[in-house]
Amino acid sequence: MTSRPFDEDAVADDVLRARFAAIVESSFDAIVSKDLDGTVRTWNGAAERLFGYPADEMMGRSILTIIPAHLHEEEMRLLSRLRQGERIEPFETVRQRKDGRYVTVSLTVSPIRNGVAKIVGASVVARDITSTKEKERRIRLLLREVNHRVRNQYAIILAMIRQSRVEASNAATFQKRIEERIWALAASHDLIASADWKGADLSDLVETQMAPFHPGDIYQVNGPSLALVPVAIENLGMAIHELALNSLRGGVLKEGAGLISVRWTLSERGPIRGFSITWDEHVLPGSKGPSIPQSGFGAVVLRRSVAQALSATVDVACGDGMLKWRLAGPADRFLEPYHAATATDEP
Questions:
Q1: CB–CB of 133/120 below 8 Å?
Q2: Contact between residue 51 and residue 98 where contact means Cβ atoms under 8 Å apart
Q3: Under CATH, which architecture does the 152-340 domain have?
Q4: In what helix (H) or strand (E) does residue 100 lie, and over which residues does it extend?
Q5: 173-209 b/e (C-beta count within 10 Å ≥ 16 → b)
């Protein structure tokens, strides 16, 4: 019996190939090899998970199976460049899963050479960057939103300065009013930022704006939990601040007695969904009671600018120790879409 000589080099090659195959198969990145005509030759487990096709279904098929139709020409140019021996820099593109969904991927393409260094195919490493691209998109949106908000803040502050001069009797009062209003605006802005530039709760907004006035138990809040859009947070925040400031001058907050009620409702009548918020203030009998001024920043906010910004209407009634300020308009101007779509009949 003749024994075959032990080939250490062949064993070493087998071990190396086994290790390489294990690395490819256990990789978290999709690793695919293909011929220069685009035929798939290998397809690891990560490729199965990323694209939804099992290996036995993709082996021998064209790589165009996972490439959207509008990107087929891109793949043809890539294969042509590989045949010519060009270096392919990593790039980002889109692939299509078996279920039809698109996935954004980062591709690294390397040539495969045979024993005489001729390019016979390509190895492609695909990494899913869909979530990364979505985060980048979100950051861009937030930056645009921040830019818009900053410009809007400048406009509001300039209006504060112009209108506050009308109602201020001296420089000290003017400075105090400007500082109070800027801090109120900043408090609303903090709510927007803390909610990731989405919806902040209306109850939180009212509490935040009322806190500096230390209302104690002479005011109450009543309404469903609602998430406001940023423009409503800014404008309703200014309105609540001006109403509280007005009360401090000649209403419940000045007297330290009486009752302030802040309530809001959603309504649905026919095809129109509505939102309304009411500030209802009653002082004790015998007191003059509050009234909204006809000029100055507070008057502009409570009688005109907030209503214009939110496509709403304002109703004001005062006298006999009471003040009622009501703002009403379409719910979609005030609320995040989910809340705007779940209105209930107003009692």
A1: no
A2: yes
A3: 2-Layer Sandwich (3.30)
A4: none
A5: ebeebbebbeebbebbbebbeebeeebbebbbbbebb
Q: List per-residue pLDDT tens for the chain, 347 residues long.
A: 455 555 555 444 444 455 545 555 657 889 999 999 999 999 999 999 999 999 999 999 999 999 999 999 999 999 999 999 899 999 999 999 999 999 999 999 999 998 888 999 999 999 999 988 888 888 887 777 666 666 777 677 777 777 676 666 778 877 887 888 888 888 887 887 776 656 689 999 999 999 998 888 899 999 999 999 988 998 999 999 999 998 988 889 988 888 999 999 998 776 778 999 999 999 877 677 778 878 788 888 899 999 999 999 999 998 888 899 999 999 999 987 755 555 444 44
Q: At 201, is the secondary structure helix, strand, or coil?
A: strand
Tell me the two tokens of residue 112.
Answer: 């495969």
Phi, psi of 91 (to 5 degrees): -145, 165
Long-range contacts of 107-112 (CB under 8 A, 24+ apart): 109/78, 109/82, 111/82, 111/85, 112/33
Domain ranges (residues) in the chain: 8-128, 152-340
Print burial letters for 99-121: b (CB count within 10 Å at least 16), e (below 16).
Answer: eeeebbbbbebebbeeeeeeeeb
The CATH code of the domain at 8-128 is 3.30.450.20
Which segments within the chain are labelled E, that is strand? Answer: 30-35, 40-43, 91-96, 102-113, 119-128, 200-201, 219-222, 227-228, 259-269, 272-282, 313-319, 322-330
